[in-house]
Design goal:
Layout (H helix, E strand, L loop, with lengths): L2 E5 L2 E5 L5 E4 L4 E3 L5 E4 L2 E4 L1 E6 L4 E8 H12 L6 H22 L25 H9 L3 E5 L2 E2 L4 E2 L9 H5 L21 E7 L12 E9 L5 E8 L3 E4 L1 H7 L10 E6 L2 E7 L7 E2 H9 L4 H8 L4 E4 L10 E5 L4
Helix pairs in contact: 1-2, 1-3, 2-3, 2-6, 2-7
Amino acid sequence: MNDITQTPSQIAWSCESDPHSWILKKPIQIKDRSDFVQYKKAWYRGTLEIYPTADALYLINHVPIDDYIASLIHGEMPETYNIEALKAQAVAARSYAVAQALKRRNYGLAWDVKDSDRDQMYPGAQRETRASLQAALSTKDEYLISDDQILKAYYSAASGGHSELPSYVWGRKDEDKHYVAKPNPWDKGRYQWNIDLSSGISALWQKLGKLIDIQVTHRTAGSRVENIKLIGSIREIDLSPRAFAKRLGMGSFKSLKFDITKNENGFKFEGEGWGHGVGLSQVAAQKMALAGNGYKKILAFHYPKTSIENLQRNKVLEDKSLRIPAHAR
């Protein structure tokens, strides 16, 4: 398949010959006897489905769950990591994906999990390696279970020495019962970063006056900054660190675990960690693996309220596959 062009409910498909057009009223699947399908620069296992809606066509990759896990592991974790860290990542990623799929299929969506950091990074089969396949297959059908349900298992690059609760990151208080906020000595001091800001940023806030100080007024259970206060010569402003970063045009901080100090040039933000800090810390998983811990111990440390169960004989998803939007990389 050389190319696909999309118009509402219509497809023009060129196969090294003259284009042919059809009006699609239901999905069509594209597959090959090799079990690999290529779309532009990306290879996928399983099948590609052209899915028509009222105003667009979507290209969906239907892929067996463990083939999906083998493909995404190195989209989420460095391929040089120890196999036990990769196994821990495999179980967490599998749990997250299926928990999302079970929820989203109730809404009748065409896809289960997005292929970006809004869910999980899924680059397609071209990122598979011997290690990623081993991690997926050696943990086949294993899931993190909490409160008799498959856990939507969050993870990030590094917690900065302390994990976090979902309610402080996304406002999901109902998910706090599955997680803990606790010190993580395995990644303490990793991903340290700093930002220098001048007092001139006061001009971004109307009627603030001269910026006298920036103070942290509240921290979360995971030692992350929840609120800061700008103290000006005219007035004070309370705001979240996300709103502060957005006003500065930064997008976001690498993590919200930071301290603020005043100096003669302005203010220094010194932080550690990368990401939200909920659940598995990938850096800590690697450190634990190198210290001789197996993947089950790594998962037990990061998800202490869960158990690992093999659901081979239970119905997880009836078709035992996931539906992922396919994009050329």
